[in-house]
Structure formats: C-alpha cells, structure tokens
Design goal:
This protein is an alpha+beta fold. Helices cover 24% and strands 38% of the residues. It has 4 helices and 6 strands. The chain has helices spanning 21-31, 35-38, 40-45, 55-67, and strands spanning 11-13, 17-18, 76-87, 96-108, 113-123, 129-140. The chain starts with 10 loop residues before the first strand and ends with a strand.
Length: 141
C-alpha cells in the first residue's frame, strides 16, 4: 500500500504462528542465551514454571506476522523507530500468536514519502495479550 492508503484507526489482523519448544530454544541459543529460554530444569524453578520465549523473539514474530500481511508491499523504504515496547505476558512452547495492527499515525514527509506508525498488539491462543509496541516506517506516497 502507498502512504495515502493508510489512515489513522485502520486495523489489520495477521495470521497465527505457533511457537514450539524447539523454535524457542533455537532462537535463544543464537540471540538470547539466558536460562529461562534454554534450561528447562532451571526454568521450572523460576517464576515462569518452564521455558519461555525471549521477548525479542516475541517482538520478531509480531513484526514477521505484520510484514507477511503484505500491507507495505514494495512501497516500504525503511523502518525508522520502535517505541513503547512492552512484554506483557510470557510466551510458552505451544502458544499460537497473532497480531492486531492499528495505524496510529500518518505524517507526510518530503521527497514523495510518508511516515506510517502502527501499534502492534500480539495475543496468544487464549486471547491474552503478550506484547505491544509502536513501529514507524517510511513509505512511498
């Protein structure tokens, strides 16, 4: 979509993605090697009662699901900011995530571009919100 096709209050819903224990541990080994993501025994002794996904993985999945809607298409130029990132609830193996995306800002820029800001709100299959964050991208007009 081009910049002028986005408007404040516009809402999109993504498809779902199920995270397995293997998905969680593979991501954690490479990008967030902390015990709560890797060591099942130690994780069960902690506050989450088991392995949980990295918040960074939850953010990445949320972004992936949004991008896969194809709403930006080839009109996207680059991301410019992520703000107000909140990891609300832990994500466990077997959780299926989807994201509700709401356009919360549109700003015309120079050189035939515009800034689109969206609020990503990610939920698990129990309809519990697990993540929230704002994302701004530069889009062709």
């Amino acid at each position: 979509m081009r910049f002028h096709e986005f408007y404040i209050g516009q809402v999109f819903k993504t498809k779902s993605l199920k995270l397995t224990k293997e998905d969680i541990t593979r991501f954690a080994r490479e990008f967030d090697p902390q015990y709560m993501h890797l060591d099942e025994e130690k994780a069960f002794q902690g506050r989450f009662n088991g392995i949980i996904a990295s918040g960074i993985q939850t953010l990445a999945v949320s972004f992936k699901l949004w991008v896969e809607t194809g709403s930006y298409g080839d009109e996207v130029i680059a991301g410019t900011a992520m703000n107000n990132i909140k990891f609300i609830k832990p994500v466990y193996p077997g959780d299926e995530l989807y994201t509700i995306v709401e356009v919360i800002g549109v700003k015309e820029m120079r050189n035939g571009t515009g800034l689109v800001t969206v609020l990503l709100s990610t939920f698990n299959n129990k309809e519990e919100q697990v993540f929230e964050g704002d994302l701004s991208v530069l889009v062709k007009q």
